[in-house]
């Protein structure tokens, strides 16, 4: 599965701890992140992560583009609900696209833990079936 990992500045410590705790699950998936979040996670865990631009410089939009192209299966986004973000429109757009395309979106550590347990259990296998079907339809 393709998984996006994103954290606002005040949530980056949570993201580092989360990715260390769940690296045994994350390491069997393709990981993508906004720039700074990605750098911190790979430094802390050694996980291989594709890093996009930093969020305020367009990273959220790049992840949004993957969602719109049906290339993202899950988004884990530790939002800071108490600090205004200069790129708030990008943040809202990313979350909106998750709803447009029915992509599971966890916006805090508690929900993310449930997501990863579900992922380990195979709860998201419908995504692979859906993508295979869409690929076949695209080829016909
Ligand atoms: O701002 C962000 C998401 O909206 C996160 O970006 P960084 O990971 O580059 O700090």
UniProtKB/TrEMBL annotation:
This protein's source sits in the domain of life called Bacteria
Q: Which residues bind substrate?
A: 8, 12, 34-37, 54-55, 87
Q: Which family does it belong to?
A: Belongs to the methylglyoxal synthase family.
| Domain MGS-like intervals | 1-140
Keyword Translocase present in the record's keywords: the answer is no
- Look up the EC number in the record and give it: 4.2.3.3
Q: Which PROSITE patterns match?
A: METHYLGLYOXAL_SYNTH, MGS
Molecular function as annotated in GO: methylglyoxal synthase activity
Q: Which organism is it from?
A: Oceanobacillus longus
What catalytic reaction does the record list?
Answer: dihydroxyacetone phosphate = methylglyoxal + phosphate
Q: What is the recorded function of this protein according to its Swiss-Prot or TrEMBL entry?
A: Catalyzes the formation of methylglyoxal from dihydroxyacetone phosphate.
Write out the catalytic residues in the record. 60 (proton donor/acceptor)
- According to UniProt, the name of this protein is Methylglyoxal synthase
Enzyme class comes to lyase
Task: Enumerate the UniProt keywords alphabetically.
Answer: Lyase
């Amino acid at each position: 599965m393709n998984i996006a990992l994103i954290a606002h500045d005040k949530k980056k410590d949570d993201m580092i701890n989360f990715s260390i705790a769940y690296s045994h699950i994350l390491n069997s998936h393709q990981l993508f992140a906004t720039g700074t979040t990605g750098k911190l996670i790979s430094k802390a865990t050694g996980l291989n992560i594709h890093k996009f631009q930093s969020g305020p410089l367009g990273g959220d939009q790049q992840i949004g583009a993957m969602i719109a192209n049906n290339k993202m299966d899950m988004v884990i986004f530790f939002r800071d609900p108490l600090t205004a973000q200069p790129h708030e429109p990008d943040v809202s757009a990313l979350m909106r696209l998750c709803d447009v395309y029915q992509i599971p979106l966890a916006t805090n550590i508690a929900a993310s833990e449930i997501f990863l347990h579900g992922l380990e259990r195979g709860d998201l296998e419908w995504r692979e079936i859906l993508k295979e079907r869409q690929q076949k339809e695209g080829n016909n």
